[in-house]
Amino acid sequence: MCHIRQLDYFDVESMTQAFEHIDLVIFIPSIIHPSFKRLPEVENLVQAAQKAQVKQIFYIGFYADQHNNPFHMSPYFAYAERLLASSRLNYTYIRMAMYMDPLKPYLPELVKMKKLIYPVGDGRINYISRHDIAKGVIAILQQPEAWGGRYLLSGHSYSMPELATILSEAAGSTINYAPVSLDTFASMYDEPKGFGALLASMYDAAARGLLDQHADDYQKLVNDTPQTFAQFLSQS
């Protein structure tokens, strides 16, 4: 039987009540910004899990968390991991590479522009599908001996010219790589206000080589290989 419990990441009491008699919590952060507004989420997670005596937390993080990463959400992910480490809770830290999924609905706009404009330069980005992320998390869930580890669920890394070629083949229309500046990109996608700068900071990280991360954790956990971008785009 499935029981649905409502909680509010910004209300520690609602989280505590939702966690009662729950052994394992899989925590997926919200997508609000700026970064500091997310801090209460993980603080409340720790407090609620301690009060409810949760036995294990799976924390779903992001790979743009290095100490020198300019991504505006990087401070949050760094803080979250260190807070968990100091909490005395049992936790598994799962970092994700970049989602492939948003590129599919973005493809018609790219076809119209005839260009991929990410301000990445010569940088490479490692992409993985949400479906493969879910498979990786489920694989860890099914292997208690793997709990307590730190994992990177990554797929394949692409340069932007390589990605433009793959997108062109999927769309049946030529898309060239023609990067705009970070400021131009931020102004083009600044809805809601401030989101453009956040996105630009992520591609700044990519330009610095900080999103070209790969691990074989997925292959070891799932006993399979993650989808390529071409395979993902070929699916309806």
Automatic annotation (TrEMBL):
Q: Which residues form the NmrA-like domain?
A: 8-233
Entries under Pfam families matching the protein: NmrA (PF05368)
What protein is this chain from? NmrA family protein
Q: Which organism is it from?
A: Staphylococcus lugdunensis
